[in-house]
Amino acid sequence: MSDKLSVGEAIxxxxxxxxxxxxxxxxxxxxxxxxxxxxxxxxxxxxxxFARTYVPDIYVAGPPERMSDLIPRKRAGKLPGFSFSSTNxxxxxxxLWWDDLRLDHNGAYTAPLISAWFRRWFAxxxxxxxxxxxVEGFIHSATVDEKWITVDxxxxxxxxxxxxxxxxxKCGATLVHVSAAxxxx
Length: 185
Fold this sequence. Notes:
The chain is α+β, with helices and mostly antiparallel strands. The chain has helices at 7-32, 111-121, 158-170, and strands at 42-43, 53-54, 58-60, 66-68, 82-85, 90-93, 101-105, 141-144, 148-152, 175-180. The strands form three sheets. It has a six-stranded mixed sheet with strand order 5-6-10-7-9-8, covered by helices on one side. A two-stranded antiparallel ribbon has the order 1-2.
């Protein structure tokens, strides 16, 4: 990480870069097909996703039905590692992709805490608008185990990540390692 950026600024820069790409992707898809919808919550009963739900970046009801997700542009290498510590938690960032975050920790997620975080940051079942302007406001998917979580942070604000770290700490973690879920290219 550059000496010029704080940890918060670095996280915000990764998010902003991804959301800028997402906004462009949605605009292109809508130009191709005006019925293309961003932010549509879909039930995926056979998936291993948390709550068996998913929000594709674009959904077209069809016919034919189609879903599409942005593939972010490649970086020139991995982000330099960075970390921060609070009184009871150390967070080490090995790599950070907003659409492909993996968080490993030494605590143990509890269903009530991780479920509350998920409900707060996932698209509403009733299809109401997200919390922010345009596409902003919610995560797109999560897969959870007791010791890790992978999340497509979608258009959620950086606050979603900080709240996830807070939940992880409340679940007993003192050390968190953040990386990408996908293997490096």
